[in-house]
Amino acid sequence: MRLVLLGPPGAGKGTQAAYIVEKFNIPHISTGDIFRKNVKEGTELGKKAKAYMDKGELVPDEVVVAIVEDRLKEDDCKEGFLLDGFPRTVTQAENLDIVLDKMNVAINKVININVNKDVLVERASGRRVCRNCGATYHIVFKPTKAENICDICGGEVYQRSDDAEATVSKRIEVYIQETQPLIKYYENKGSLVTINGEQDMDHVRKDIISALGE
Ligand code: ADP
Ligand code: AMP
């Protein structure tokens, strides 16, 4: 299973990724998570990425592509993987194709989670994330059992700085400009399935699983 999760910020990619990787036993490769980890650890990459992330802009293609290429070469990706938040531009998608060609493999399905803008803002602004394990919550739709404490690992749950309303709006604009063209790109390749992401989490999950033929 070689999968891509496509969709605007706040659509539910990370939430659904957690279910999919468990079901298919494949690694979850989230470029956003990789950048956040590097920001937290204060690496050079983290410092570089943070400048773009804080503004709601995309990290340059060549930086992201190099990271994903290295990650896909790791052993745990041999039987499959789930890419979440990558590719995000046509250039990234074309480079991904080149990398996969070299590896003699291809993407099986691109799952496009479709959600309208007003819902996205509500979801992203209520999102909370565990600082320790990265688990995702929502103050209304998926609250933690104890306030600000992760149900899974007991870590501190916080609000991402790029989930401030102004930054979310900017990220949605960037999505429309840079990422939305990928819908046509993958439609033309015949690998796109579009899922109604405005349903509750369970229904979205069921639709994805059935689109994957399971
Ligand atoms: P993405 O990875 O696409 O940016 P997330 O998976 O982090 O999005 O989801 C954004 C926010 O919306 C999170 O707070 C999450 O708990 C919540 N969420 C995700 N899917 C749904 C859904 N189907 N219904 C309601 N809230 C959802
Ligand atoms: P995400 O966690 O997917 O919402 O990503 C958070 C931020 O990380 C984005 O707003 C970008 O600044 C950066 N980022 C993540 N993935 C990519 C990517 N594929 N290309 C460029 N920037 C990215």
Description:
The protein has a domain at 2-26 and 79-115 and 176-211: P-loop containing nucleotide triphosphate hydrolases (Rossmann fold, 3-Layer(aba) Sandwich). The model has no long low-confidence stretch (mean pLDDT 96). The longest helix is centred in the last third of the chain and has 15 residues, at 165-179. It has helices spanning 13-24, 31-41, 44-55, 61-72, 90-102, 117-125, 165-179, 181-189, 201-211; strands spanning 2-6, 28-30, 81-84, 109-114, 127-130, 136-138, 157-158, 192-196. The chain contains 9 helices and 8 strands. With 214 residues, it is of the alpha/beta class. Helices cover 49% and strands 15% of the residues. The chain is globular, with a radius of gyration of 16 Å. The strands form 2 sheets. It has a 5-stranded parallel sheet, with helices on both faces. A 3-stranded antiparallel sheet has the order 6-5-7.
Helix/strand-derived class?
alpha/beta
SSE string, helices as H and strands as E: EHEHHHEHEHEEEHHEH
Shape, per Cα inertia axes: globular
- Count of runs of 4 or more consecutive helical residues: 9
CATH homologous superfamily annotation of the domain at 2-26 and 79-115 and 176-211? P-loop containing nucleotide triphosphate hydrolases
How much helicity do the residues have? Answer: 40-55%
Biggest beta sheet attributes: 5 strands, parallel
CATH fold descriptor of the domain at 2-26 and 79-115 and 176-211? Rossmann fold
What gap, in angstroms, lies between the N and C termini? 12 Å
